[in-house]
Amino acid sequence: MVRRLAWMKLNKHKSKELAQKIVYYLIIFFGFIFRKLNYATTVQLAAWLGDLFFNVVKIRRQLVLQNLAMVFPARREKEIRQLARQVYRNQAENLLDMLRLSSMRTSEDASKLLTIDTTEFLAKTTHVKKGAVLVSAHFSNWELLARSIGLLVTPLHVVVKRLRNSFVDQKINQWRAECGNHVIYKNAAFREGIRMLQKGGVLSFLGDQSDPKGTFFMDFLGRRTSVFVGPAYIALKAEVPLFVVMGYRLGNGGYKAELQEIDMNGLQATKQDAEELVRRYTAVVERYIYQYPAEWFWFHDRWKRVG
């Protein structure tokens, strides 16, 4: 009986590993194919895929519609559906672009896709050999944004969550790191982050995520939810500036990113002040989501932890 259970467990593990490898090789294959596509073809394919997942597959469609209706109560049902459809198309385009990221290898490649004014950021960080915390969101193409900043401005230390598929996790992190950026897993963010900031590095977070521990709750897009305080506390602890960076599509294949420093005057590395800093940079993130709602990743069950 024990041997049979051990065999079943081993067989289940092998099946899971095989499924993960299949997904991995599909990503490699489609990445090779999609790198051959031009912008117009990519947009057309993304629109087709987005409509397929919205109309037929319906992945998380009810959740997306529910989230949009909650945040934009004044919009009619038809408007919400149109917005949701564009959300699916944008995320399909993000997926195709991510599979093609390896084709962006130089600062010249990045400058063709991204416009960004870094004057203030460089004056307060790289030019004075000081680190900084960079906060963004699951907004527009966040992977392309991080890669572009790494090539155009300075290498980033990107805080990420480990994926369940170890093969895909390794491949995506390889793409993230192949042009100078460094990957830090979320569970090591505080220790490694402080060390990198003290050396003048730039630590990058996506700050719109829910905190599974539920230690801090505030309104986000008009509804109470848990918010991750880590980026704020690390910036205060390391005594470095914190910037919000948000990018959005220009409609011609390019993107524009905007940097805004968050006022930290008078704030200390305390729980109360870290929460205040979170409120300040979250307000900036919210402003972009309200202005460009189709760019945000509405597929998260963002308000599942309400305190």
From TrEMBL:
User: Which CDD domains does this chain map to?
Assistant: LPLAT_LABLAT-like (cd07984)
Coiled-coil parts of chain? 257-284
GO-annotated biological processes:
glycolipid biosynthetic process
Endoplasmic reticulum: present as a keyword of the record? no
- Keyword Acyltransferase set for record: yes
GO MF terms, alphabetically ordered: acyltransferase activity
Keywords on record = Acyltransferase, Cell inner membrane, Cell membrane, Coiled coil, Membrane, Transferase, Transmembrane, Transmembrane helix
Query: Per its UniProt record, what Pfam families does this chain match?
Result: Lip_A_acyltrans
A single Gene Ontology CC annotation of this entry is: plasma membrane
Q: Which PANTHER family match?
A: LIPID A BIOSYNTHESIS LAUROYL ACYLTRANSFERASE, PHOSPHATIDYLINOSITOL MANNOSIDE ACYLTRANSFERASE
Q: What is this protein called?
A: Acyltransferase, HtrB/MsbB family
From what organism does this protein derive?
A: Chlorobium chlorochromatii (strain CaD3)
